[in-house]
Amino acid sequence: MELNGRPVGVEELGALALYNYGHFTTMRVEDGRVRGLSLHLERLLGDCRVLHGAELDLDRVRHLVRRVTAPGTPVIVRVTVFDPELDVARPAVKAHPEILVSTRPVPGDLPPLALGTAEYQRDLPEVKHSGLFGPVLHRRFALAGGYDDALFTDARGRVTEGPTWNIGFVREGRLLWPEDDRLPGVTMRLLQRVAERVGIPSVTAAVDLDDLPGMTAAFVTSSAIGARPVRSIDGAELRPDEPIVTTLRREYAALPGEPI
Fold this sequence. Notes:
Blueprint: E1 2-3, E2 6-7, H1 14-19, E3 23-30, E4 33-34, H2 37-52, H3 58-67, E5 75-82, E6 98-104, E7 113-119, H4 133-144, E8 149-153, E9 166-171, E10 174-178, H5 186-198, E11 202-205, E12 217-222, E13 226-233, E14 236-237, H6 243-253, E15 258-259
Parallel strand pairs: 7-8, 7-13, 10-11
Antiparallel strand pairs: 1-2, 1-6, 3-4, 3-5, 4-15, 5-6, 9-10, 9-12, 12-13, 13-14
GO biological process, one term: 4-aminobenzoate biosynthetic process
Keywords: Aminotransferase, Transferase
Organism: Sphaerisporangium album
């Protein structure tokens, strides 16, 4: 873990630990390349303007990511942007955001998920911010209830997203993406492009809880895993081997990464 390219001290993480005010993106780096790198950088730039009212040096971000990666060793890199000098009493004071880069191993093959629905909506859902208390709490509740993760719905009963991922569905031979308030995930956006390129019909529309029994399949999307099939939602079985999902996973894995 490095802050601005050097080992980070405990005191420098105080503001992030105590106030949890910042934003981040997580990317999978393989041989110095990242699928959707330009989208990750676009996210960091836009979220920095929203949360800190400041510009972010994207060339520096790339340099700092290169520092912690090595050719031939796939790794998950998280870039967190926060202000170590944040004054919680006066958060509108001009910010000086800094760049924290951390890594973790790439996950192995993961089995299809069993999801349980929960009513919850993140603050400022269009921003990938570091306020993860609610998502982690509902993930914990889901695990305690015998599920693998939580699927969020809003107060109207419309499906939105998961704690750290987007979700897509297959119904009547086409892709269906929930349109309600959720993070516009990088992997979701890449898969939408993939679907268009290979000729899979795709639409973005409201998905209500009552619509779930009519779904053939579902999958969650994130940069760490690509597309991961779902085997059930609230106990209702789905088809994890649906051919459309299999095609999406294969085509996503074949996408060329952008050099860091």
